[in-house]
TrEMBL record:
It comes from Dermacoccus nishinomiyaensis. InterPro entries: 2Fe-2S_ferredoxin-like_sf, 2Fe-2S_ferredoxin-type, Beta-grasp_dom_sf, FAD-bd_FR_type, FNR_nucleotide-bd, MRET, OxRdtase_FAD/NAD-bd, Riboflavin_synthase-like_b-brl. The keyword NAD does not apply. Gene3D superfamilies: 3.10.20.30, Nucleotide-binding domain of ferredoxin-NADP reductase (FNR) module, Translation factors. Residues 268-350 form the 2Fe-2S ferredoxin-type domain. The keyword Iron-sulfur applies. It comes from the Bacteria. This is Oxidoreductase. Residues 32-130 form the FAD-binding FR-type domain. Keywords: 2Fe-2S, FAD, Flavoprotein, Iron, Iron-sulfur, Metal-binding, Oxidoreductase. Pfam families: Fer2, NAD_binding_1. One of its GO terms (molecular function) is 2 iron, 2 sulfur cluster binding. Its cofactor is FAD.
Amino acid sequence: MLKRAAWRAAEVFTTPAPPQEFARLFNPLVSSRQLRGVVTAVRHETANSATIEFTPGGTWDAHKAGQYARIGVEIDGVRNWRSYSLVTAEGHDPAITVTAVGRVSSHLVHHTEPGDVLFLAPPQGDFLLPTGPRPLLMLTAGSGLTPVMSMLRTLLPQRRDADVVVIHSSRNSDETLFLDELTQMNDAHHSLTLVHRFTEHEGRLDLATTHDLDTLCPDWRSRKTYVCGPQEMLDDAERLWHSEDLPHELSVERFAPTLFADPDARGGVVTFEKSDKEANAEGNTTLLEVGEDAGVLLPSGCRMGICRTCLTPLVSGTVRNLSSGELCSDEGELIQTCISAAVGPVHLDA
Ligand code: FES
């Protein structure tokens, strides 16, 4: 109410332009439509990863440990969105730790500077700490450590006796995120057990059977378990906990959809009619990626077939749903570009 009155008073001085337009000139976080954040620090973690701290604009909801946010960044005039876990403790300004894999993440790691503006969506996700004290097991690999870092940074200062086992896999110590901080945490908290698995020498943690878990964490069945890492690891964990009749004890964080590549898939030329652009698409590349690479501004959200933000009308041609394998050639049908690929020439109303 007070805020609205203040804007009305400001109109006296800024007419004919609304006061928001003047504010936007000086404060990049003021936007009537799009949540934004300004980068306050960039810290390199390993040779190809960096932590980017940012201060979000006013309507950002404080994140809970383990949540993620979609971050938008403009590259060559096209706004690209990706989901990243928020790595700071609850109650702190957010930060993301990004590994330079793929175009958007590489851009963030190598070209972000303090003062840059990021486009933001509110924190979300239910990969959250239990509400009461529980013995915990964290199984992470590579950048899958990031949501768990937020949990550890939140939990350990509050409960020095929190019983947590972290088994983290990375290729070697040079590629391990937060290595020094984890070591310090381990020294400071006797009830924290940290197991580094360097896959270069020890091979991957095998979750296809109970053998590795029985060896590294014999009471794993009695722990609330969180797993975040490559898809194969997540799939194995889900199968194992199901086979032990413990699916309710497992929380899985997935950032990528389960897509099925068809080795015989043929792509085709995709025409984005409204944008007047054309691109050659491979048979297993999503139409969203094809469009973005061609400089077409397509709507997107989760990029994993959940939110349906990317729905785009099919004008003609056939597309394959990479998740279900189903084909669709119905004119006017709304298709999810983030999980659909071209089968021959395709025209989209985009
Ligand atoms: S972007 Fe969410 S369903 Fe396609």
